[in-house]
Amino acid sequence: MVLRFMQETANHQMRDNKPSYYDLFFSGKSFIITRISIELYEQLHQYDEIEVRCWVCEGKAATFVRCYQIYREDTLCAQAYSEWALADIHSGRLIHTSEIDFSGYEAGEKLELELPRRFHIPRDLELKKIGMDRVRYSAVDLNGHMNNTYYPDMCWDCIPDIERKMVTSMNIRFVHEALLNSELDIYGAEADAGLAKDPRAEQVYVTQSRIGERKNVEIIFGLKKLEHPLWDKEQLNNLMNEDTRER
Hints:
- The chain is an alpha+beta fold.
- It has 2 domains: 1-113, Hotdog Thioesterase (Thiol Ester Dehydrase, Chain A); 116-229, Hotdog Thioesterase (Thiol Ester Dehydrase, Chain A, Roll), CATH 3.10.129.10.
- It is 17% helix and 38% strand.
- The protein contains 4 helices and 9 strands; from the N terminus they run ααβββββαββββα.
- A 9-stranded antiparallel sheet has the order 2-3-4-1-6-9-8-7-5.
- The longest helix has 16 residues, at 2-17.
């Protein structure tokens, strides 16, 4: 949801200041995210009133940059740095930053996060299969690809004991798109705590989705123990057993 809040805000900026998403799409162009680094400092709760900010930054060659922040009153709860490519839908050609005018968008300086902008999963880290999924119609965008905001939930759901953990960071690299009805295999492993470069993380977990042998998306999660989990596996099992007995 944090990622969706950020991207919905960017969509509103595009709509209000032009060119909008539709302006680009119907002229044969579409933004494709390549990476995003998100740091989470405070958890967002139901009924919180939040303010989401976004702005574009100076890009380079065919890389467009956008940053985000989420505030609850005066408290900074999350911020992110992202990189995008603008592609010609028909030819696949990447469009240079100098070829299109985005001067109407609010602009600012690039955020300097503690997370690295680029990362590589160590070759000696043994990733094991932890789940499977399929790209359903409800998850695709106008390009027919799985929307990027669905990936964190898909991978997060496969991490062991997630009911006892909270996220402190996500560093996501988008390698290849996943088309409608693609079958995805999800791999994961706990990694050295220093891999994420996240000072708030007590644990680091790496996930990678694949379509056949082809890498799809890689995510490094920074995690910490949830001090007061709402429920755990034992409680769930007890509830299920009680429900079965009542039936």
